[in-house]
């Protein structure tokens, strides 16, 4: 399944947050969005998963018009790992992950055996099997994020949107989460902050500045000292990391 | 507990045992409630009357009943009263659970959307200003006024909170507070200018809640409204569960909460309005029963809902028993009883069990 967003314009109040952005996620491609805080990454993602209605533009999942389709139809194909994990009530990890089956259920349909199998599988993929009966609210930030990821996996989406999924997580959880997503072999659109992670995991990158696409291409094409300096207003040198052979960054003000 | 049972519902078959146990205790409590009261009717005789009435005269006989008035007391006073207690307990617990999910706030209760102050204003108006003068109409007028007040305020809250986009839970709570304050001040204004000590006393009594007006002719409406509401929400667990996650997550799971929120609020407003009209304000039940049930069954509405309804009914039956028997020959307002039992129970849950709203 492909995700296409074309000519998206979003204004909130009088401020234009997103200006004419177009994005393409090809089948099984891991696409990253990078850019400074407040550049419009999250807002753009919200318009893709129907939380915000853009003033202009269109969003398609293959031939499904996201903006005109029901939330249910979209959520059967598009899963979202967001930053909103605050709850006033507590559910067990298993119940939380089971909620990922909601889009595939009719209102009165009960949870079948296969749903429990799918949930079990999602818990296994995210290393959460031992947490099944723990309360969600008792978990640490990294564990909560994994539960949300497990819920999204149980949703069995063809495309996954992640909004800064590794925020506040330590290095191990960052790697665990991104590797887990990568191994799903589905189309991914992720807003990321860590450039080394972006270089390592993404097949394609969009660099966003002031609500516009500043550059796009493979990580090697986009993550140049000049682009990074323009995006974040810091000095930056790139090098090939001698240990990983991946792209490395040295920053300075 | 079998491994399979554990997988399916996380607490094995305990859930079903609990539910059957609750139903059994409710039946026993109802029978006990019918047999006690200010008039001392021997237990065997009250059982005879109940069994005789329930089986339409096929089982049991009324031959050895000592007084004709016993029949009246049991059948026309106590039985409808138990039914009322059960229904109102079910209704309050139902509306409390739903409102807590709708506004995503554990402090919500059925009255949170200004329904209480609206109903109070309506009742105060009916008692002190009045819709009519005859005794029957004035009695009917209180219920009517309270219902009307509850409906108007909840609609006003709904409309106010939808101005300028989606009705978020914060906007709902704030609108409820504002409209509630407005209604309370109008009610105070009426009381301030009313030169009617008896009426003011009636208003005060009404606001404390009472099941004394229970009768068979009022039962059908209450039963239909409460049971229809309960039947609806017993099958809404998917939506109610996603409500706990908030609007943003719910959309990514394919459910647009804003529409459901409105429907749920209208339904709870009708149920709460009907209950308030018949029994006045009975506080605390709608707040604590859902929490106590979450402590037992967890916050997943699939199991929470039925448990809450039964526990709410049971709680009210016992609150009613206590209100009639705690002080000899005095009937205490049931709202006082529910708060007096409810608050220490709630404190106990928070302090002792480290209650985490459903964990």
Describe this entry's structure for a reader.
The complex is a heterodimer of chains A (253) and B (359). Chain A has 253 residues and is α/β, with parallel strands linked by helices. Chain A has one domain (3-217): P-loop containing nucleotide triphosphate hydrolases (Rossmann fold), CATH 3.40.50.300. Chain A contains nine helices and twelve strands. In chain A, the strands form three sheets. Chain A has a six-stranded mixed β-sheet with strand order 6-7-8-3-9-10, sandwiched between helices. A four-stranded antiparallel β-sheet of chain A has the order 2-1-4-5, with helices on one face. A two-stranded antiparallel sheet of chain A has the order 11-12. In chain A, strand 9 (204-209) and strand 10 form a beta hairpin. Chain A starts with a strand and ends with a strand. The mean pLDDT of chain A is 91. Chain B has a single domain (3-353), classed as Orthogonal Bundle (ABC transporter involved in vitamin B12 uptake, BtuC). Chain B has helices spanning 3-9, 14-35, 43-54, 68-102, 115-129, 135-162, 169-193, 197-208, 219-234, 237-245, 247-252, 257-279, 285-297, 301-325, 334-353. Mean pLDDT of chain B is 85; it is low at 1-10. Chain A binds chain B through residues 49-51, 70-76, 78-80, 82, 84, 86-92, 94-95, 99-100, 102-103, 105, 107-108, 116, 132-133, 135-138, 155, and chain B through 7-8, 10, 100-101, 104-106, 235-236, 238-239, 241-242, 244-249, 251-256, 294, 298-300, 356-359.
């Amino acid at each position: 399944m492909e995700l296409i967003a074309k000519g998206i314009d979003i204004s909130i109040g009088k401020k234009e947050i997103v200006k004419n952005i177009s994005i393409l996620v090809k089948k099984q491609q891991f696409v990253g969005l990078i850019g400074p805080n407040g550049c419009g990454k999250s807002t753009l993602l919200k318009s893709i998963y129907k939380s915000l209605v853009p003033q202009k533009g269109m969003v398609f999942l293959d031939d499904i018009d996201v903006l005109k389709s029901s939330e249910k139809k979209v959520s059967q194909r598009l899963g979202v790992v967001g930053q909103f994990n605050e709850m006033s009530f507590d559910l067990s990890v298993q119940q939380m992950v089971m909620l990922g089956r909601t889009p595939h259920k009719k209102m009165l349909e009960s949870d079948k055996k296969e749903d429990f199998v799918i949930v079990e599988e999602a818990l296994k993929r995210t290393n959460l099997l031992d947490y099944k009966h723990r309360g969600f609210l008792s978990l640490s930030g990294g564990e909560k994020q994994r539960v949300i990821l497990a819920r999204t996996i149980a949703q069995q989406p063809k495309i996954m949107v992640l909004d800064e999924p590794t925020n506040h997580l330590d290095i191990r959880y960052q790697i665990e989460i991104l590797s887990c997503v990568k191994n799903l072999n589905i189309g991914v659109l992720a807003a990321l902050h860590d450039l080394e992670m972006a270089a390592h995991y993404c097949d394609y990158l969009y660099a966003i500045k002031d609500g516009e696409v500043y550059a796009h291409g493979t990580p090697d094409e986009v993550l140049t000292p000049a682009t990074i300096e323009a995006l974040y207003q810091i000095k930056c040198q790139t090098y090939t990391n001698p240990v990983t052979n991946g792209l490395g960054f040295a920053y300075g003000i | 507990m079998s491994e399979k049972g554990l997988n399916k519902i996380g607490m094995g078959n305990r859930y079903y045992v609990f539910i059957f146990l609750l139903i059994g205790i409710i039946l026993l409590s109802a029978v006990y409630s019918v047999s006690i009261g200010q008039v001392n009717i021997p237990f065997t005789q009250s059982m005879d009357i109940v069994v005789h009435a329930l089986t339409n005269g096929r089982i049991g006989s009324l031959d050895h009943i000592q007084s004709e008035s016993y029949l009246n007391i049991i059948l026309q006073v106590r039985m409808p009263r138990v039914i009322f207690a059960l229904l109102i307990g079910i209704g309050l617990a139902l509306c409390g659970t739903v409102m807590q999910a709708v506004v995503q706030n554990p402090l919500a209760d059925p009255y949170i959307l200004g329904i209480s102050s609206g109903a109070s204003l309506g009742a105060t108006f009916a008692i002190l200003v009045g819709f009519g003068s005859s005794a029957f109409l004035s009695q009917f007028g209180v219920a009517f006024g309270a219902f009307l007040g509850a409906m108007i305020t909840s609609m006003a809250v709904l409309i106010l909170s939808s101005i300028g986009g989606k009705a978020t839970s914060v906007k709902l709570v704030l609108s409820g507070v504002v409209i509630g304050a407005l209604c309370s001040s109008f009610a105070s204004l009426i009381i301030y200018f009313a030169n009617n000590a008896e009426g003011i006393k009636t208003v005060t009594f009404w606001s404390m809640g009472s099941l004394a007006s229970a009768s068979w002719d009022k039962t059908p409406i209450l039963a239909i409204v409460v049971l229809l509401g309960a039947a609806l929400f017993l099958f809404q667990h998917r939506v109610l569960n996603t409500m706990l996650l908030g609007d943003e997550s719910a959309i990514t799971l394919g459910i647009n909460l804003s529409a459901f929120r409105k429907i749920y609020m209208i339904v709870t407003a009708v149920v709460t309005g009907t209950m308030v009209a018949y029994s006045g304000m009975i506080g605390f039940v709608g707040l604590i029963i859902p929490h106590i049930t979450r402590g037992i069954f967890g916050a997943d509405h699939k199991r929470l809902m039925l448990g809450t309804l039964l526990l709410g009914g049971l709680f009210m039956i016992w609150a009613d028993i206590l209100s009639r028997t705690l002080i000899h020959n005095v009937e205490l307002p049931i709202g006082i009883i529910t708060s007096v039992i409810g608050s220490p129970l709630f404190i106990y849950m928070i302090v002792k069990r480290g209650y985490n709203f459903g964990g």
